Amino acid sequence: MPVLSSSSVLDLWDRGAQLHSLDQGLLALSVGFPETSYQTLADWPLGRRNRALAELQWSWFGPTLEGWASCPQCAEKLEFQMDARSFTNLEAPGPEPVVVNGRSFRLPTSRDLARAAGETDPQSAALRLLEACRLSLEDAEGEALSLDDLETVGEKLAAADPLAETRLSLVCPNCGNQWEDTVDIAAFLWADIDARARRLLREVHTLGSAYGWTEREILSLSDRRRAVYLGMAQA
Questions:
Q1: Are 88 and 51 contacting, i.e. CB atoms less than 8 angstroms apart?
Q2: Lower Cβ count inside 10 Å, N or C end of the chain?
Q3: Are 113 and 24 in contact (CB under 8 A)?
Q4: Is 1 within a domain?
Q5: Are residues 207 and 106 in the same domain?
Q6: Which domain holds residue 121?
Q7: Rounded-to-integer distance, Cα 203 and Cα 96, Å
Q8: pLDDT tens digits for range 195-205
Q9: Domain ends where: 133, 160, 187?
Q10: What is the pLDDT of residues 96-124, one digit of tens each?
Q11: Rounded distance between C-alpha atoms, residue 174 and residue 50, angstroms
């Protein structure tokens, strides 16, 4: 897995800052797995994608995921931590289709999520996602999927690909409300990329103003040497 240098962080951030979160995740994967084409990455099952994103998180920024959630009942903010290595404990899903009531489905991919993202109604989005994953309209006499199919098919797909969606159980210390929230590993990774890039830009500004160095010269310094120069410039 390539090392994410300071210049690489800024290049990745610059290319992805205006992209949808799904595309930001794929862009990060394309940097972390350069031997795999972008089209292939977009067709990875979500569990495989999430596991690979967790590997990038661990390799580039360390295993700790720090985040916060807002209680849906009283709006209290809760801080939480997770270990990115927990995403790598499960094996990647196999290629076998999931069969439910005579209908066959493949596992959802980033490409499927992108197609469903345009729906404003959650149920319509879920139905569109399942229809995209349906392998053949000839099964079960080509019957259209109904809302009743959502729960059954969704449970089967989740069982076949446990890492496709990770849910975190939370308890509000203020009101005692208990709920579950979805962990978006791509959002965690991009948040770290964004924070690192902005920190680097501040360092470039400080050292460039103090010494007249170019961005290229500043980014070529090791983190240790850059930190020493920053300390002297800010003294």
A1: yes
A2: C
A3: no
A4: no
A5: no
A6: 98-160
A7: 50
A8: 999 999 999 99
A9: 160
A10: 888 888 888 999 999 999 988 888 888 88
A11: 32
